[in-house]
Design brief:
Layout: E1 2-10, H1 19-29, E2 35-38, E3 43-48, H2 49-65, E4 70-78, E5 86-94
Antiparallel strand pairs: 1-3, 1-4, 2-3, 4-5
Helix pairs in contact: 1-2
Length: 96
């Protein structure tokens, strides 16, 4: 099974990237995922289910420890054989 994850950490700081956003980004970039796209207000990544779920665990732990007050994330199951094509999805929020 392939999954995609999209996440945002808060609080936002438009002047410089907060530490919680940096460690969350590093968690997915270092997770061996197939694709990572870092944007100004969110990051998306995709890969095998085990790798994505492990990355989600790491990014939650690291970003909360680095000062995030909220982490919003969405995890989607990708359609078989179609990279980037979203199939059935589920969403959750953590860190309130």
């Amino acid at each position: 099974m392939r999954l995609s994850v999209e996440f945002t950490t808060e609080p936002f700081d438009l002047d410089e990237t907060p530490a919680h956003a940096v460690v969350a980004r590093e968690a997915v970039q270092g997770a061996g995922l197939d694709a990572v796209d870092v944007g100004p207000f969110g990051t998306t990544a995709e890969g095998g289910a085990d790798a994505v779920l492990a990355a989600v665990y790491t990014l939650l732990r690291a970003s909360l420890a680095a000062g995030a007050t909220r982490v919003s994330l969405q995890v989607n199951v990708l359609a078989e054989g179609a990279e980037g094509a979203v199939g059935v999805g589920a969403a959750t929020e953590a860190g309130r």
